[in-house]
Design goal:
This protein is α+β, with helices and mostly antiparallel strands and 423 residues long. Helices cover 19% and strands 23% of the residues. It has a 15-stranded mixed beta sheet that branches. Strands 12-13 form a two-stranded antiparallel ribbon. The termini are far apart. This is Cytochrome c-552/DMSO reductase-like haem-binding domain-containing protein.
């Protein structure tokens, strides 16, 4: 279960406070604002994290297991799903995280989750049915997703780790064993098809932030004790970083549809799906010019168009985390994960706890060994047929050659023996 409330503003503000803590003058300037922020955040937490009754998980799909097979060199991290076509996925209904009842399921459709690894990085694809909505600069009026993974052996899905400590008592010692790793992507400032997440500027500051697209790396002990990697009750550890990268897309988006004017070597020309007066100066695909969106193209498509959202992510199997803030994946082993989805129903901004989840408990994630490929099911028969045919051909050729040599030897019986001394 995930709880998020206005994380962009708060985490950026917290980052400023932490990085300014070494200066008493700067800290004194921020202390009144910090007090106000704590009051506001605390009041929001009390409201948004209040469950309607006793927690129950009667609809858990415990039989579902996500399988991440070894498939190298297939995925390009750009938000497009076409390179995942041969990868098997798992389809989930999306139920409210706080009260997982089927009657209140997400009306827009379902979510399909796919995963794979290439021996170095993990890759995830989320496909979610939903009409296109986008409000630049307001992530709460755009879809948002999060992945959560168990780190500590006692970390529960419910209450994001389940540590019973209050916000002023949370610490790595008091909540040891309740750590969960979270990746949260709010797309309000993210251009579709562009890459976000870990970047040199934020990683230089030693935390899991992303000031460009808000694809952040977070850890948590419970909903009230949630921090960017590297930040926490004790201050900024300055040795963490954002290890995630990702992109998003929607079916209604199209960067190839209309001709557009460019300048090539000082000459104006027009390029598009059916027209290219620029000659070979620009590479044009069958669908049009290979180009991407820029910020000025916002909102990138007309609102309310039907289709699917695609969220694509990657992260190294192992990270350099030394603070128990990142899950560590291992080939041949399993992890536990959860997925959350926020959507502005009826155009109304979503709030932190009003999200949907694929299950009301952890879902196992199996990371297969290098000897297993996702393409085995679809290609094993054709590969076997090709190998069998090739072996049969070699056998026939060898038999024919042996027969020819035997026949040639049997015909030539007039060979006379010549002693060596007569040569």
């Amino acid at each position: 279960m995930f709880y998020f409330i206005k994380t962009e503003t708060f985490t950026q503000f917290l980052s400023i406070i932490m990085t300014s803590s070494s200066s008493p003058t700067m800290l004194s300037r921020f202390s009144p604002l910090l007090g106000i922020a704590i009051v506001i955040i605390t009041s929001d937490l009390v409201i948004s994290h209040e469950e309607s009754g006793e927690w129950s998980c009667s609809n858990s799909n415990s039989d579902n297991r996500i399988q991440a097979n070894f498939v190298p060199g297939v995925v390009t991290l750009d938000g497009h799903a076409n390179d995942w076509d041969k990868i098997d996925g798992h389809e989930f209904s999306l139920l409210p995280a706080l009260d997982p009842h089927e009657d209140d399921a997400y009306k827009g459709g379902t979510m399909t989750l796919k995963a794979l690894h290439d021996g170095k990085d993990m890759y995830f694809l989320l496909e979610v049915d939903g009409e296109y909505v986008y409000n630049k600069g307001d992530s709460h009026k755009c879809p948002s997703v999060a992945l959560m993974f168990q780190i500590g052996e006692n970390a529960s899905y419910h209450r994001m780790g389940g540590c019973e400590k209050a916000p002023d008592a949370c610490s790595s010692k008091a909540c040891r064993g309740h750590e969960v790793d979270i990746m949260h992507f709010s797309i309000g400032n993210a251009i579709p098809g562009r890459l976000y997440g870990g970047n040199p500027i934020d990683n230089r500051d030693g935390n899991g932030g992303d000031r460009f697209g808000h694809l952040v790396d977070v850890y948590s002990w419970n909903p009230h004790c949630r921090y960017l990697d590297g930040l926490g009750p004790a201050g900024n550890d300055s040795i963490a970083q954002n290890d995630w990268k990702g992109a998003w897309w929607h079916d209604s988006l199209n960067v190839h549809s209309d001709p557009w004017t460019v300048t090539v070597t000082g000459v104006m020309c027009v390029v598009g799906p059916k027209e290219n007066t620029c000659g070979a100066a620009l590479v044009v695909s069958e669908a049009g010019v290979v180009r991407g969106f820029v910020e000025e193209d916002s909102p990138y498509a007309s609102a309310d168009q039907k289709g699917k959202y695609y969220f694509e992510f990657s992260r190294p199997l192992r990270t350099m985390d030394r603070l128990q803030q990142d899950v560590q994946f291992a080939i041949g082993q399993s992890s536990k994960m959860a997925v959350a989805f926020w959507y502005p129903i009826g155009g109304k901004p979503w709030h932190g706890s009003a999200h949907y989840s694929i299950n009301c408990d952890w879902v196992p994630l199996d990371i297969t060994s290098l000897g297993t490929s996702a393409f085995t099911k679809t290609s094993s028969r054709s590969s076997w047929d090709a190998a069998s045919a090739f072996s049969l051909l070699l056998s026939v050729l060898a038999f024919c050659l042996s027969a020819f040599i035997g026949y040639a030897v049997s015909r030539n019986k007039s060979i006379h023996f010549t002693p060596m001394d007569r040569l």
